Amino acid sequence: MAEHAKLGVRLNRICCIGAGYVGGPTMATIALKCPQLEVVIVDMNEDRIKRWNSDELPIYEPGLMEVVKACCGKNLFFSTDVKKGIEEADIIFASVNTPTKTQGVGKGRAADLRFIESVGRTIAQYASRSKIVIEKSTVPIKTAEAIARVLSANEAAAGGSKNFWILSNPEFLAEGTAMKDLDAPDRVLIGGQDQDAIQVLADVCANWVPRDRILTTNLWSSELSKLVANAMLAQRVSSINSISRLCERTGADVKEVARAIGTDSRIGPKFLNASVDFGGSCFQKDILNLVYICQQFGLEECAAYWQQVVDMNDYQKIAFTSKIIQSLFNTVTKKKIAVLGFAFKKDTGDVRETPALMVCDMLMKDGAIVHVYDPKVVIEDALTEFKYHDLEVNKNQLIFSKSPQEACDGAHAIVVVTEWDEFKTYDYKSLYDKMMKPAFLFDGRNMLDHAALVDIGFEVHALGKGQIKSSGGQSQIPDFVTRAGSGLLSGGYSP
Ligand SMILES: NC(=O)c1ccc[n+]([C@@H]2O[C@H](COP(=O)([O-])OP(=O)(O)OC[C@H]3O[C@@H](n4cnc5c(N)ncnc54)[C@H](O)[C@@H]3O)[C@@H](O)[C@H]2O)c1
Ligand SMILES: O=c1ccn([C@@H]2O[C@H](COP(=O)(O)OP(=O)(O)O[C@H]3O[C@H](CO)[C@@H](O)[C@H](O)[C@H]3O)[C@@H](O)[C@H]2O)c(=O)[nH]1
Prior knowledge:
By secondary structure, this protein is α/β, with parallel strands linked by helices. The protein is built from 18 helices and 14 strands. The chain has helices spanning about 25-35, 45-50, 65-70, 80-90, 115-125, 145-155, 180-185, 195-205, 220-250, 255-260, 285-295, 300-325, 355-365, 380-390, 405-410, 430-435, 450-455, 480-485; strands at about 15, 40, 75-80, 90-95, 130-135, 165-170, 190, 215, 335-340, 370-375, 400, 415, 440-445, 460. The strands form two sheets. The chain has an eight-stranded mixed sheet, sandwiched between helices. Strands 11-10-9-12-13-14 form a six-stranded parallel sheet, sandwiched between helices. The radius of gyration is 25 Å and the shape is elongated. The protein binds nicotinamide-adenine-dinucleotide and uridine-5'-diphosphate-glucose.
């Protein structure tokens, strides 16, 4: 069994604690790229492990099934036996969830570190040799110190002499493109205090990642960089979303503005798509975490700066949904509304912090009957997310449809929340024919051909655009309505 000459750790067996959206794809990629290594992913969630070992993986990610199929049972294993996983591997990744605290000190902002702490304690309990422990989870700065203290205190109490080298190796994959991101990452970041331990992980990654893309830093820079990367990305979305509101008031088109500014190489074109909001399990939680850390260090102005990114995100969802209600003559009571897409972005079934949640909730609170169609999301996951946010769902008001036709049939409006590619391919004429009139369409992703939809007869509202005209340049709203300005029945229509 290969052993590191200086550290004395065995190099051919990796264990990952946490078989979620990160642990699963990340370790499957290591198994594929490093056939000489054995990779074991352990999780306390039995159902999740059962699904990883089946043909129905617990998460949907393009390309993931192929990699799991290629490696599972050869050098990739999924198990609930955490003890054995820890005992047998000397390189251990912690890829457990780090959600926002929902109670106590720091409630609603600080990261809940109980899962990461429990990993430290479990390693302390079962480790019979020295180990390299790698933080894969996104954690607040200085978490490595906490893990090190848990491990060393237990080791001292047991009178042992094992070493634990803690590394930070944050993950930058995005859902929906995880396998591509892992295959060709912009960079791999490794933070640590011991250069030999850093080299062990760098050598694993160098099996497929060019060395110049493997960045090494001290522990604290690495931990903080992950939070900052997410904060900067989310900040771009909030910035363009704030401009989308201004565009709607002024007649500028947010897509044109994004293109105009994005061609400046200093700004760049990515992450400038206006949307209903940035969703997902990471952005909000990580910014709130950053806000909390700034506050902990007395940096109130810095905290307020980043808090505004989250506040803008909340405002955008409310503004988008309010516009739907206003446009539908200020009431959606008993009206069928078709919501296309429930996932927080395309190519995933993940609904954590999806904007669809607040959009549906606001519509239902106003009395609407919401019919959702999403190609991947299952209703149980959606209901769990409503519950997690303490949002009540009347089951007669939230229906998951099996097809877009079923969702749109008899609806007053279509609301596009997720940018699934298939939404571009629908026959909107036949959907329109079966809808109530006027038939409204709200494009929360600016992804459809708006002029063509106006040609069909839809009244189209797109994020960050003023009044949408037909392909022949005709206005879609009768003159007397636009002249009447923002009266209630005109739906508060802006130019
Ligand atoms: N989801 C993403 O796209 C993404 C990307 C980059 C980083 N991250 C970060 O990675 C971490 C994991 O995220 P995720 O989305 O994979 O979470 P997840 O909830 O999908 O998976 C975490 C898993 O850890 C398991 N777990 C928790 N404590 C455990 C313990 N003590 N022993 C065994 N299993 C345990 C849970 O049962 C769960 O299955 C988070 O810190 C997150 O912020 C997530
Ligand atoms: O121009 C844009 C880009 C994104 N979004 C939205 O922003 C959210 C997040 O999108 P994305 O970043 O693509 O997906 P995530 O899977 O949340 O990935 C982010 O969060 C991960 C977890 O930390 C990081 O690893 C990734 O690097 C980071 O991109 C989604 O709702 C997107 O629809 C926009 O509205 N407009």
